[in-house]
Amino acid sequence: AGLVAPLVAGLAAAVVLGLMVVMLNQHFRRLRALTGYLGRLRRAGDDSPLPGAPSGGDLLSPGLSEAIAETAREQRERRHDLEDTMALNAAVLAGLPDPLILVAENRRVLRLNPAAEALLGHDLAGRDLALVVRNPALLAAVDAVLEGGEQESVEFAIPGKVERAMAARVLRLPGAARESASVMIALYDLTGVKQSERMRADFVANVSHELRTPLTSLIGFIETLRGPAREDAEAQDRFLKIMEEQSHRMSRLVDDLLSLSRIELQEHTAPSSQSDIEPILRSVASTLELEAARRGMRIEIAAEALPPVIGVRDELTQVFQNLLDNAVKYGEDNTVIRVAARRLARGGAGERRLGRAGVKISVTNEGEGIEREHIPRLTERFYRVDSRRSRRLGGTGLGLAIVKHIINRHRGVLEIESRPDEGATFSVYLPSAAEAAAALATPRAS
Ligand code: ADP
Fold this sequence. Notes:
By secondary structure, this protein is α+β, with helices and mostly antiparallel strands. Helix content is 52%, strand content 17%. It has 13 helices and 12 strands. It has a 5-stranded antiparallel sheet, with helices on both faces. A hairpin with an 8-residue loop joins strand 4 (164-172) and strand 5 (181-189). The N and C termini lie far apart (102 Å). The relative contact order is 0.06. The site of adenosine-5'-diphosphate has 20 residues, from helix 9 and helix 12.
């Protein structure tokens, strides 16, 4: 408008422009520094404080700087809390004894805990669940939960050398996002439970069967005595004798069952008293002498000077009573039953077998012996090579089961050696008391 000379106006415009460039440049540098800082925060791991302005002083106005610094601090704390929680969760998963599998929405395996890896194999993450657990029932349960169900429970078997019975609980995980775990499969191994259920059922069936036979015969004889044999004194005598035998058989069975359950209850607590073996062997032999002599048998005892063993006298008496009773029952007429007791040699095979110093007592009889395939099963309840023969001889089928449980309780070992037609040797290894006392006296290195 002609108010200012063009030169002055030009100069003024240049100065204003120059000042604006300087001011804007500073502003943009601050913005760049702030963008860089926020970028580092987002990438996490940067714990440095809010930087100062490149030209010195606060980057932003003091209020805004503080707000950003506070937000950054809170974010850092939250991140640390999250990391702690994740580490804790990972440790809990790893420490769980039961197998656990986390599965994503697309049914791919995301993660297995060590128990699941031990059961199903390693490096399975990323695979479709159908390739990891090939069981239609479990896969159907997982699909049902993936399609909206809350939870499912199934039982199934994992085939293998030893088939495992498993129970699975399939649970939907809350708030699952894509690519994160949607479903958790918790597995529980039922093999042991199923096995003991079967054993219990078998045991009850066996006991019922053992009791039913003498009971049926008793009922039959009672009916006969009251009916057809009412006037027959000679038949009455014969029948009463059989009835007496059958009653004794039932009574022996009940006694053996009670012994077995009592010993099983105590099996996990080792005895603390000491016993001398030789007097026990002699007293058992003397009670069976008469029965042996009836079959022309003799019982010979060869006992070295033995150290006392850790053991309950009554229980050890029952062990040798059952073993000698079997030797008399199953041994051949007119032979010798040999009982040999000796201290285990230091560092010898016997001591290695027992795992400590001790004694070995063997009961050997001559006779038809036992076929190899029966030997591992002889200590099972009611297992007999020849049931009719055992019953005829008054056996309950529980004698060796009782022996095994008592020896287990005494932390000993039972060894059975036999060859057909040559006879059988039942050996009992028992820890000596001196050894146990020494073990108690020496403090265990931690
Ligand atoms: P049982 O009451 O039938 O004798 P046990 O548990 O004592 O029951 O023994 C189980 C089976 O082991 C017996 O039925 C018998 O077949 C076999 N057995 C035990 N001891 C001997 C032995 N000394 N010689 C041959 N067979 C034996």
